[in-house]
Amino acid sequence: MNIFVTEYLCSGACELTEAESGLLEEGFAMLEAVITDLLALPHSRVMTGLQQTLSLTSPTLEEANRGERLQIFRANTPGEAGENFKAACRMADCVLIIAPEFEDLLFRRTQQAVDCGTTVIGSDLHTIRLTADKWQLYQLMQAHSIPVIPTQLLSEKLPRSMVSLPCLIKHRCGAGGLGLETFETEDDLQKRWNQLRSAEEQFLLQPFLTGRALSTVALIRAGHREFFPVGEQQISWELGFEYQGGIIPVEVDVSALQNIHDLLNRVCDLLPGLAGYVGFDILMPDDAPNEPVLVEINTRLTTSYTGYRRLTHDNLAARIIDTNAEFPHIEWNQGETVRFRTDGSSSLLPQS
Prior knowledge:
The protein is of the alpha+beta class. It has 10 helices and 17 strands. Strands 10, 11, 12, 13, 14, 15, 16 and 17 form an 8-stranded antiparallel β-sheet that branches. α4 runs antiparallel to α5. It is globular. The termini are far apart.
């Protein structure tokens, strides 16, 4: 089987800003991890695209490249990366796309692959676009009484009486917390509000709720859902929002875990186009620690993959790619806790 795995930022498809360099690190970690797992499958051949300045760090991947089981399309310019993408899609039996949600990149990348006539692994186009737009997703969830963080579209028409402090502003279609800002005072919020006035409807305003920032994954295949162990996100707020990886699994009250699964099942029922590896961010508020609130949905591989793959001897990539085969439930290593970081490194934590 010829499998094309593409990570947008790593492929050279765009010029990166300094703020996006952290997303490149996360993207590269996911790319190397999933390619390594796919190459462990018999009869698999993997293709990927890399910008000219990126080098593989894994000896396994370097050996596969020399042995022609891994083909790398190099690009010096975004134009070359675009041509590489089309060529690989036409050669592939299936495509696994990793891309950020901002600027509709994940949607557009998926649409391009579909137009090339290949099979794309993952959620359908409608669901990708809906979940990437946090405002549309909020409206849909609220309409169906699914717990979400109160959200307002940043607008000059928004009455100040509807703003509670502390609060945060985030991109309507963001990824990795890029551009997320918190505000403690009315003056600081007003200054930023004025700066964003020209693009105000591309930003959202939310109260800053304290609680446990949890996340999990649903592997959705042929009408079957399998939920991964719940993890806790490691977030620093010292210099603004900074995602630092996570810990999996974490201890969650039995009733809270059931509530999380009930919440996710309701969301999945509402979005039948979800498929493959789907990440869910969840908040357990301090004032209601057993009542989960949906934060966002990622219809793509997430950084947590680098941690989950270390928590099991099963090949997670095989289950993502082969959507028709029947697999037993994933066997998670009992008594182990993994701390994963955005650069792809991970370590086992001592057990208490």
